[in-house]
Amino acid sequence: MAASGDSTATAVARQLARAYPWPVSVGDDLRRSLAFLGSDADGETVVRAGYVAAVPISVSVLVASTLLAPASPVVTRLLLAVTAGLAATHAVHRLPVGTAALRRTRALGETADLVGRAALRMRLEPTPERAAAFATRTGDGPLSESLQSHVRRARGAPESALESFAEEWSPWFPALDRSVSLLLTSADAAEGERSRSLDRALEAVLDGTHDEMADFASTVRGPTTALYAFGVLLPLALVGVLPAARAAGLTLPTSAFVFVYNAFLPLVVVAASAWLLVRRPVALPPPRVGGDHPDVTAGPRRGLLAGLAGVGVGWVGGGAVATWASPVAAAGFGLGASLAAHYYPMARVRRRVRDVESRLDDALYLVGRRVDDGTAVETAVEDAAEDIDGATGEMLSDAAGVRRRLRVGVREAFLGEYGALAGVPSPRTRGAAALLAAAASEGRPAGGAVVATADHLRELRRVEREARRQLSSVTGTLANTAAFFAPLVAGATVAMAARMAETDLSLSGEATALPTATLGVSVGAYALCLAGLLTVLSTGLDRGLDRTLVGYRVGLALLAATGAYLAAFAGASLLF
Question: Rounded distance, CA 554 to CA 358, Å?
Answer without folding.
Answer: 26
